[in-house]
Design brief:
Chain D: It is a multi-pass membrane protein. The complex is a heteropentamer of chains A (498), B (566), C (482), D (102) and E (315). Chain C is mostly helical and 482 residues long. In chain C, 77% of the residues lie in helices and 2% in strands. Chain D has a single domain, classed as Helix Hairpins (Orthogonal Bundle). Chain D has 102 residues and is mainly α. Classes of the chains: A mainly alpha (498), B mainly alpha (566), C mainly alpha (482), D mainly alpha (102), E mainly alpha (315).
Chain lengths: 498, 566, 482, 102, 315
């Protein structure tokens, strides 16, 4: 097979091989490890760009391997896959940079970066998965590779968080497994996008079809932190900041959301799902989660916890978007996948910066940080404004599409959900910004470091600035051909006009 | 891209580009001067021919451009910003935090100018948000308690407004079947919307927050007085007009008759015009009085807009009138606000000069001088329609009562509060204030020739009628003025609202906690007390466990039922 | 030389045993590794022979069955032979470094006899020959357990010995009855004449009970955890990975050759119930152990339960589903062999580092030995049945088969078992992630030890990607009775 | 009833007694004896039953039994070694779980 | 009449079995067991299986008996509570009872089923006997038709010895040779040994045509070795591990080599060339005899050393 034909595999392999090599390296080889990591990340972005160009030309490179009778491991680069893969590759680079800075002088870096790369590899696998089975494989792999990251610190809390995390995600994985197994047993080995057979199956046995849907979505919902299954996310906050950033912005919750997208669009087909009435409960649940997450975020006093509940709320936007029947809502959901990633990663980077530089973990300690760390605070502000949905940050664009999509789908109540959630978002983010910018510093910082820098260490600062800039650019230039929005539109056009 | 288009593009961008000057300490000193220059392109733009610029990459595909309305708004806005900045140059000379002020100033400016050239809802909304949130920083510039309080109220109301706007925009966009985001096209689609009143109400109220509609106005009298004077001037003069601008841009005036809506708007407008006047009269701060005056004036405009919904065909005549009115009010109010800054700094300038200077905008506002006359007369002329309620015109005439009282109150307060030990008035402040006063004194037909205004002189015959109400008022005031002793705190209904909120919170707290335990040192107190939180957490956990149990059981039941069903 | 590869499977290990008993220390090691290489090559050439001519028989001493003993090379036998070759050679490499000189001296002959026994069992198609093979296997295994010579391992060895002897006798009783009934010992011939009469039912009952006792299926399992948990690390790996598979292999062979799935559905159900009990009990017990190797030993117990689920899923009605179940079971067996061996080796390294058996002593090891933890984790992935791994693929096929036959109970059991296994594996993990004061005083194992553990674990993962290579060896006709 | 069959039944009896003893006893030596009885019973069944089916001596089972006896003696010897070693180490002739609460 | 003898034998057999399991004294139960072995060899004769009878006498009763008695002597020191037969409150008792009766019932039912074997394997044996190189069918089966079984069986024996070696105290403490201080016995045994050896060789030789063979011969040889050891002659031969091991594998090595040679000629494993089958079988048998004798003896020897530790420790 040609180089281009194997591109999906290469994309996966860049981070996978990096992980392997990193595991082999001795702990002390920090320089080499960092270089390797960065080179791999850059190479991956290059490959992804190549791949995106191919996909834009209506090609879908595909690599498949039959691993069980009638069951193939398929890596396929379609437009939707590239959305998620693109996000992951960009954020991998940023997060790697950040992690290098963040973990300077801390132990266990070999382990950390190894699993980190593995985690990215699984995310890549999830995005490039060409069928449910492949998806399942990488979905589980993701659980495995993130667990060591969650418990990285080895403290009792982090171990406990790890346990909670596993309890949730593995149970979810099992539910998904049953769903996928049922699907394969009764419907067959179908690539994503072949929805016609599912439609036939649904006609003949609607109950089984509903059960499959329920199980698949139930499995995904755990990672996507939909309402009753969101408990792991705030607990997993004990992990180091880059991990939180990765979990929230790229890897785990997004994997769940992405899976829901795949199930609704490429397994069942949105029309079918709507006809059968599967989707409405899901959008109700997502709406409830949106409000509930925001409401809970309002009550948190820990920065990262607040951000975590904010994620609970924000990821449901994606779910809500894709449950709206009609192209506009879908665009909103898809593009929010990316936008939320960029903004949330910025926020977590900044939260990490505050913690690392000044030892700040609680919101009330943030007073006056704007003066001490202006750049970080600026980035944080941009991220927070984006979360609220204030233009020109990217969050507005997705919110806009969601709202109009909801109206187009005839679900007017959704916009009140959006508005209510935005209000709540404002209510929990604006006071933070207020403290950062407008209140004077109170006494000493809890634990100040990096005093030689005006703001914080460059490796910590630059990624946050990059992602902040990206999230503004994604909103500001949403109309351009290179924007996530255009790509989401492309996906939707292909999805709705096969 | 033609030169004009480039100019259009540069107008909102220039202030943002100037922000780069903060990067270097040397250029930082230049900032105030740059801030004066920043609105200049806008001023020039307002004299250029109408044009438009498509920016397909920006947001969801943007359209920027100018037409008559835009140009008028641009003109007085830029003038106001220029002279206020000029005033601010001196006003903030000794301020420690001047840099911060100018930073936010430039951002707010960018937002204000940007929204005035936006032809599509997304860029409009963006600039609107930029302006709103940057202005927050201006409001709380002094960091004193009252400023922070005002800032909080401002922010809450602004966010509320933003959300209403967003909802309205969603619905508007839906009405056009999501085919366009351009104001002009949306307007034509809007009347076809189902439940038209929902988007209209949303947009009306949403922008009404900025425009100081009654019951949404609380932030205005709170924020305007506490902001530094130049900021108050632009807030009250320019930014408040952004709400009006938005109404003009998006509401389908002249296309559709909505009598009920129109009537309600008229009533609201009149309420604002009179009650705000009443409340303003009971204020002790000169700036607060001015703020209430702004509410009152915007009430008049609301009133006029309501009339359009009743009689759509008057739109073509009303629009220039409204533009004139806005222009007049902005400049006059700006000049008045700046003059508050003079009360401490009249050293070296003849007090008489100042008083005369102050009188120009004040009289103009009452409607007995120059542009004020024109605005008032034009308004009355246009509203003299059979289709409208007959009490409308007299009411508007009577509203001069409120304005007169307010101006009188303002002047007397200013006189009473003038500093016994004034400091020197810097040239820049002088220039800024003087500039606005002069503009105020110039005839609008000079400044906005596009509007084709009738000459002031031809209106002289109406002068007695214009003087009637203010005159009567002054006479009445002379007799009863000494009995006005009680006050209403600035922000009026915000206090009962806060009371209600606190009462609710404590009530819920009481519901959830038998013995309220207080935790020391928990500085960020969330909306509820700790026991409530604990109870909530427990409830959540319980629900969660029940739910997971339920889902687990469900799965089991499913498996078993499948087994049974086979 | 057509007879060479198949005979080599027996001759080479026996030669190895002879060599290791007769030669001096240096030559013993050298010759052992030469022979291991030879055996690996031999296996490969046998594989190619199989590709060339398909299933074939080899009459020992040129006396064809039923008079003589015939060896049979089919896909299943080949898979198991390859599996034992892989695991055994890696374990040998590990042992060579891990064991002390005295232990190693004794290890080699046991090892070779063990391998010879395994190969003879995989290949044999003669009932009595299987018995002798089983005995050889059991005694070699007992010897290996006793290799550490302390009281605990002696007790374990005794328990194991008695269980194994009882099991062998049960099997032999069955053989006696079958021979008396059918007059033949050759399995293919027996399957031609077989009908489920009373005496053959009793015979098969005895055989199955005996063999399952050797496999440590649920109620007869109590010998296994101390034996596997108490033995020396490479021995534990060999025992858990290969030895218990041998007796199970015979059950599987009997079941499919004699088409017992047609004869009796309730027997299959019974097997399934035993398996389910084993899965749940083993998982639960593993979760509650405090010693690392006991966790792994109990995990073996649970895994055996999965193998047992093949039987209820082999049905005469649905050929496709039965085939899936069979393939799944075989894959599980194979994956378990690789993963469990890898896991034991990795665990051995961990215990070597800390010098204690307690789980608590693992604190801080994931920082000190990340590669080793990784090896443990990879093996754990396969044991948990998470993708991508051989264990997952096997489980997947079993679930598919159960679903196609609407036997939902087994689906539920498999899933609960997976969750349990995830729980105990991650429990171990969380211990290694713990950070404690003074958690830096570890011994460092040799690199070979870590790499061998890793290689097996990696193989168990790779099996998840290359399952078709294995499953292609199992034609559908091998399972389903026509 | 041929004498072959009688001895087969005898073998059945030996097996029963052997199993009973094997499970009942905790003393390792007695267990070993029980195992040997069980083995002998099995051999008797093997030879007796198959010869009774044919009515004449059958050499195959006899050869099998010879092999079986040797295997059994090997196993017995091995077990004895283990038992003796165990006894030497612990002063017990029973496994830990059979030693009672003391 | 014959049936009566058979029934009597069975009764004695079962009685002895019961006694050997359930007598209070361990020594007695071992004695009963040895006795049972002797009765069993009678039974084998009744079953027309003189080969097994010989083997049972030599191996089952002889070697096993010696080993058991020897072990008994060493187990005296252990806590030995006499077994209680009727432990009615113990679940174990009921389990044992249930299993015992279950086994009897199941086997009884199975045995009582009428038999009609479809495959006449015995006929095939006699058909192919001529080509096997020997005339005695059992030897033909053991060393030709099913020689593969035998090969593995020898491996089992070696393994057993190896375990014993594993559990030997340690290499530093050689086995203490506690010979009997009886000069007369010493002298007698010196005479006896060649005779016993001769008997063993005879059994081996006879094996090809009539009952007898490597196993029986090996067992006899082992008893000779044991006696030899008891009087303390040449035991340093047994002390040397190399001699021990090489002795064990001697037979197996010959067997494997002889079996593997045909592989080089393109024949299956363990094929004997037709012409030399008899000689080769004899060669193998010779090797096996020596090895089996040596192994059985080593088992005796090493099982003693397995419990030497105790002797040194007990005061």
């Amino acid at each position: 097979m040609s180089f281009f034909g194997l591109l999906p595999l290469w994309v996966l392999m860049t981070s996978f091989l990096a992980a392997i090599v990193i595991f082999m390296l001795p702990e002390e080889r920090h320089g080499l490890r960092s270089t390797l990591n960065l080179v791999a990340a850059v190479v991956k972005i290059g490959l992804i760009i190549l791949l995106i160009r191919l996909v834009a030309q209506q090609e879908t490179p595909e690599v498949s391997l039959e691993i069980l009778p009638g069951l193939s491991l398929v890596l396929r680069a379609d437009a939707l896959a590239m959305l998620f893969a693109g996000l992951s590759s960009i954020l991998w680079l940023c997060t790697t940079l950040y992690a290098i800075g963040y973990l300077e002088n801390s132990p266990n870096r070999s382990r950390f970066f190894g699993y980190f790369s593995l985690c990215v590899a699984s995310t890549m696998g999830i995005s490039l998965a060409g069928n449910l089975f492949t998806f399942l494989i990488f979905y589980e792999l993701l659980t495995l590779s993130t667990y060591p990251l969650v418990v990285h610190r080895g403290t009792p809390q982090s171990l406990k968080a790890g346990r909670t995390y596993l309890a949730y995600t593995l149970s979810g994985g099992v539910v998904l497994l049953v769903g996928v197994a049922l699907f394969y047993a009764f419907v067959g080995d179908l690539a994503f996008g072949q929805t016609s057979q599912m439609a036939e199956f649904t006609e003949t046995s609607p109950i089984a079809s509903a059960i499959i849907f329920l199980l698949l979505i139930g499995g995904m919902a755990v990672k996507a932190a939909l309402f009753p299954f969101h408990g792991w996310l705030p607990t997993a906050m004990v992990a180091p900041a880059p991990v939180s950033a990765l979990l929230h912005a790229v890897a785990v919750v997004k994997a769940g959301a992405f899976g829901i997208i795949r199930v609704i669009y490429d397994v069942f087909g949105i029309e079918l799902a709507w006809q059968q009435g599967y989707v409405l409960p899901l959008s109700l649940l997502a709406s409830f989660t949106i409000l509930y997450g925001s409401w809970r975020a309002l009550q948190q006093t820990d920065i990262k916890k607040r951000l975590a509940f904010s994620t609970v709320s924000q990821v449901s936007y994606i779910v809500l978007g894709v449950t709206l029947l009609g192209p506009i809502g879908t665009v909103g959901g898809l593009v929010h996948l990316l936008h939320q990633g960029l903004m949330k990663v910025t926020l977590f980077f900044c939260a990490g910066n505050y913690a690392e530089t000044l030892g700040i973990h609680k919101i009330h300690e943030l007073n006056g940080t704007g003066r001490r760390m202006p750049m970080t605070s600026a980035a944080f502000t941009l991220g927070a404004l984006g979360m609220i949905g204030i233009p020109p940050v990217a969050g507005f664009i997705s919110k806009w599409y969601l709202g109009t999509g909801a109206l187009a789908a005839g679900m007017d109540w959704v916009i009140w959900v959006l508005i209510g959630s935005s209000l709540l978002n404002a209510a929990y983010f604006l006071p933070v910004l207020y403290r950062i910018w407008f209140l004077p510093q109170q006494g000493q910082w809890p634990h100040e470091a990096f005093t030689q820098w005006r703001d914080t260490a460059p490796l910590l600062l630059i990624p946050a600035l990059i992602t902040a800039a990206l999230s503004v650019a994604a909103g500001l230039f949403a109309g351009s051909d290179l924007s996530p929005l255009s790509w989401a539109r492309l996906i939707v056009i292909r999805e709705y006009q096969p | 891209m033609t030169f004009f288009q480039f100019w259009l593009f540069i107008t909102p961008c220039l202030p943002l580009i100037l922000l780069l000057a903060f990067l270097h300490p040397a250029s930082r000193a230049m900032i105030p001067y740059l801030a004066i220059l920043a609105p200049l392109p806008a001023l020039l733009l307002s004299f250029m021919p109408s044009q438009s610029l498509e920016l397909p990459s920006l947001f969801l595909g943007s359209l920027w451009g100018t037409d008559l309305t835009h140009k008028v708004f641009l003109r007085f806005t830029s003038l106001l910003w220029i002279f206020s900045a000029c005033f601010g140059l001196g006003y903030l000379k000794s301020d420690q935090n001047a840099n911060r002020f100018w930073l936010l100033w430039l951002m707010t400016l960018a937002g204000n100018l940007g929204l005035l050239i936006s032809q599509d809802i997304i860029s409009f909304y963006t600039f609107f948000a930029l302006m709103t949130f940057s202005a927050y920083g201006l409001v709380i510039h002094t960091r004193q308690d009252n400023a922070l309080f005002a800032g909080r109220i401002y922010l809450v109301m602004a966010v509320l407004g933003e959300m209403l706007i967003l909802g309205g925009l969603f619905l508007t966009s839906a009405a056009s079947a999501h085919s366009t985001l351009i104001f002009a096209e949306l307007k034509t689609h809007l009347p076809q919307a189902e439940n038209l009143w929902v988007p209209l109400t949303c947009l009306f109220l949403g922008f009404g927050v900025k425009a100081g509609l009654p019951f949404l106005h609380m932030w205005l009298p709170l924020a305007h007085p506490v902001a530094p004077t130049p900021a108050s001037a632009v807030l009250s003069g320019a930014m408040i007009k952004a709400g009006l601008f938005a109404w003009l841009s998006i509401l389908p005036f002249g296309m559709i008759a909505l009598p009920t809506m129109g009537l309600i708007m008229i009533l609201i407008g009149l309420l604002a015009a009179f009650v705000a006047g009443g409340i303003g009269l009971l204020q002790t701060l000169p700036k607060a009085v001015l703020a209430y005056s702004s509410i009152s004036q915007m009430g008049l405009i609301t009133c006029a807009l309501g009339a359009v919904f009743i009689a759509p065909d008057i739109w073509s005549v009303l629009l220039p009138t409204l533009l004139l009115f806005a222009f007049h009010h902005a400049i006059a109010k700006g000049a008045l606000f700046l003059s508050v800054g003079l009360k401490d700094r009249y050293q070296g300038v003849s007090l008489l000069m100042i008083e005369i200077g102050i009188l120009v905008p004040a009289l103009s506002l009452i409607g007995v001088f120059n542009s004020g006359i024109q605005a008032k007369l034009a308004l009355k002329h246009v509203l003299d329609q059979d289709a409208l309620p007959i009490w409308l015109l007299p009411s508007i005439t009577a509203s001069a009562l409120a304005t007169t009282l307010l101006m009188f109150r303002f002047l007397s307060l200013l006189w009473k509060e003038k500093s016994p030990t004034p400091s020197a008035l810097p040239l820049s402040m002088n220039l800024g204030w003087g500039g606005l006063v002069v503009i105020c004194g110039l005839g609008p037909s000079l400044l906005i020739p596009e509007l084709d205004l009738p000459s002031v002189l031809s209106q002289w015959r109406h002068y007695p009628s214009l003087l009637l109400v203010p005159g009567l008022t002054l006479v009445a005031l002379y007799f009863v003025g000494s009995y006005l002793r009680f006050q209403i705190p600035t922000g009026d209904i915000i206090y009962p609202l806060i009371k209600i909120k606190e009462a609710c919170a404590t009530r819920i707290d009481r519901l959830t906690s038998r013995n309220a335990l207080r935790v020391e040192g928990q500085e960020t107190k969330p909306g509820f007390s700790l026991p409530t939180l604990i109870a909530l957490n427990q409830a959540e956990r319980t629900i969660q466990s029940y739910l997971s149990a339920f889902f687990g059981l469900l799965t089991l039941v499913l498996i078993v039922s499948l087994y049974a069903l086979r | 030389m057509a007879h060479f590869p198949i005979a080599g499977l027996i001759v080479f290990p026996l030669l190895g045993a002879l060599v290791s008993l007769a030669l001096s220390k240096r030559w013993r090691t050298v010759m052992s590794f030469i022979l291991i290489t030879a055996l690996l090559l031999n296996n490969v050439s046998l594989l190619f022979q199989f590709y060339g001519q398909g299933t074939f028989n080899e009459a020992m001493g040129n006396w064809s069955a039923p008079l003589g003993i015939e060896l049979r090379v089919d896909g299943l036998a080949l898979i198991f032979s390859l599996m034992s070759a892989l695991v055994a050679s890696v374990c040998a490499l590990y042992a060579c470094v891990y064991l002390s000189a005295t232990q190693l001296k004794l290890f080699w002959p046991f090892f070779w006899f063990l391998w010879a026994a395994l190969n003879s069992i995989w290949l044999s198609s003669d009932l009595f020959n299987l018995y002798v093979g089983l005995e050889l296997l059991s005694l070699a295994a007992v010897g290996l357990v006793a290799l550490s010579r302390d009281a605990t391992s002696l007790a374990a060895a005794l328990r194991y010995l008695f269980a194994a002897l009882l099991g062998s006798i049960g099997y032999l009783l069955g053989v006696a009855l079958l021979y008396a009934t059918y007059g033949t010992l050759s399995l293919p011939e027996l399957s031609q004449h077989f009908s489920l009469t009373l005496s053959s039912a009793v015979a098969l009952g005895f055989m199955c009970i005996g063999l399952l006792m050797k496999t440590a299926v649920f109620p007869m399992h109590s010998w296994l955890p101390p034996a596997h948990g108490g033995a020396l690390t490479p021995v534990s790996a060999l025992l858990s990975a290969l030895v218990i598979k041998a007796s199970f292999y015979i059950v599987l062979r009997l079941w499919t050759e004699l088409s017992l799935e047609i004869a009796s559905a309730s027997a299959g159900m019974l097997m399934g119930i035993l398996g389910s009990a084993a899965i749940l009990w083993g998982g639960w017990m593993a979760l509650n152990q405090t010693h690392l190797k006991l966790v792994i030993a109990y995990s073996t117990l649970a895994q055996v339960g999965y193998f047992m689920l093949i039987f209820p899923l082999l049905s005469p009605v649905d050929a496709h589903a039965s085939h899936l179940a069979f393939q799944g079971g075989v894959l599980m067996l194979l994956a378990h062999a690789l993963a469990k061996a890898g896991m034991f080796l990795a665990a051995g390294n961990l215990l070597f580092c800390s010098g204690q058996k307690d789980l608590k002593s693992l604190a801080g090891l994931s920082r000190y030995r990340p590669l080793n933890i990784f090896a443990f984790g990879l093996a754990g992935v396969s044991i948990m049945g998470l993708p991508p791994s051989g264990g997952f693929n096997g489980k997947w096929l079993l679930i598919q088969s159960a679903m196609l036959q609407s036997q939902w109970v087994w689906v539920a059991v498999i899933i609960m078992g997976s969750l349990l296994s995830a729980a105990y594996i991650f429990r171990v993990f969380s211990y290694t992630y713990r950070e404690v004061e003074g958690g830096d005083s570890f011994k460092q194992p040799a690199a070979v030890l870590e790499w061998t553990a890793l290689s097996l674990s990696v193989l168990s993962i790779l099996l998840g990607l290359a399952s078709m290579l294995v499953l292609d060896l199992l034609p559908i006709s091998a399972v389903v009775a026509q | 009833m041929s004498s072959y069959l009688i001895f087969a039944y005898g073998g059945v009896g030996l097996c029963g007694i052997g199993v009973f003893g094997f499970i009942l006893h905790s003393h390792l030596l007695r267990r070993l004896i029980a195992f040997n009885l069980l083995g002998s019973g099995t051999f008797l069944i093997l030879v007796g039953l198959s010869q009774s089916g044919r009515g004449q001596p059958d050499y195959i089972p006899q050869a099998l039994v010879l092999t079986g006896i040797v295997v059994a003696v090997a196993a017995t010897a091995l077990a004895l070694v283990l038992i003796r070693r165990w006894a030497a180490l612990t002063k017990h002739a029973t496994l830990p779980e059979d030693q009672g609460p003391s | 009449m014959n049936e009566l003898i058979d029934l009597t034998l069975i009764c004695i057999l079962l009685g002895l079995a019961t006694l050997s399991l359930f007598t209070q004294s361990l020594f007695r139960s071992v004695m009963f067991f040895i006795l049972l072995g002797l009765i069993l060899s009678l039974v084998w004769i009744r079953l027309d299986a003189p080969d097994i009878a010989l083997a049972e006498a030599a191996i089952g009763a002889g070697i096993t008996g010696i080993l058991l008695l020897d072990a008994l002597a060493h187990l005296r020191a252990t806590s030995n509570t006499p077994p209680q037969l009727l432990q009615l409150k113990q679940p174990r008792f009921w389990l044992a009872l249930l299993s015992g009766t279950g086994v009897i019932l199941a086997l009884g039912l199975a045995v009582s089923e009428p038999l009609s074997p479809v495959v006449a394997l015995d006929l095939k044996v006699s058909e192919n006997l001529a080509e096997s190189g020997v005339t005695h069918p059992i030897t033909a089966i053991l060393l030709n038709f099913r020689s593969y079984d035998t090969l593995l069986e020898v491996a089992v024996l070696v393994l057993a010895a190896l375990v014993a070696l594993t559990l030997r105290q340690s290499d530093e403490h050689p086995v203490a040779n506690e010979f009997l201080p009886n000069q007369l016995l010493h002298a007698c045994l010196k005479l006896f040994f060649p005779m016993i050896f001769l008997v063993s060789m005879y059994l081996l030789w006879a094996g090809s045509t009539q009952p007898g063979g490597a196993f029986q011969a090996g067992a006899v040889l082992a008893s000779a070795f044991v006696l030899f050891y008891l009087v303390g002659l040449k035991t340093q031969l047994a002390q040397n591990e190399h001699y021990l091991k090489r002795g064990w594998i001697f037979g197996l090595a010959i067997f494997v080599l002889v079996g593997a040679v045909p592989l080089l000629q393109g024949q299956p494993f363990l094929t004997y060339p037709d012409a030399h089958a008899g000689v080769l079988i004899l060669l193998i048998e010779l090797g096996l005899t020596l090895s089996i004798g040596w192994i059985l003896f080593s088992l005796f020897l090493l099982s003693q050393s397995a419990s030497t530790f105790q002797k040194k420790d007990t005061p």
